[in-house]
Fold this protein.
Amino acid sequence: MKDMKIPTPINQFEEKSVLFIITGDYEGRFLIAHKGTIKDKLGLKFSMREEGKEKQAYVHSNPGPEKAGAMSHYGKYREDLKLKFYKSIRDKAYDLSFNGKIDEIYLFSPKQTMHRIYGKLKKETRDKIKNKFYGEYTKHSPLEILKIWEKEKKSTPERIYKNKEEEKILTKSPLQRKRIIKK
């Protein structure tokens, strides 16, 4: 848990407490900005090697007396690890957003994991999300995250889509939108 002063050209967050959730496929960080400081609250990192053995057993029950089994660390085990990661992100985000009295949340994540993480968050946490930023930001320092946030915030309208279909339509160009709507 490191505290860092925010330089003056960057927003100082005097009136609001802001939580930045930065995630990758198996890695996540939580930053809280408030009253001129930014705190690196917690980091989560899940590793295929550390979380399990080299090979994992997977047994699947079929209807009837037979059981099927396989030895692998791909497939089901990989998905279980991702679910475990998403659940820990959900729980930590909920704890920080309500125990830390957070006013706004910004979510930074690669596109392939953004929808999964957003879908796993509790409704109370989702309601506080003001914007989502697509990209791999887990290796960036807190000050770099703030600079990226300011730059992206100026160029991106604050919009949370109600569902994937609405996002799909509204992120297309106007010409493509006409084609989709006509169908």
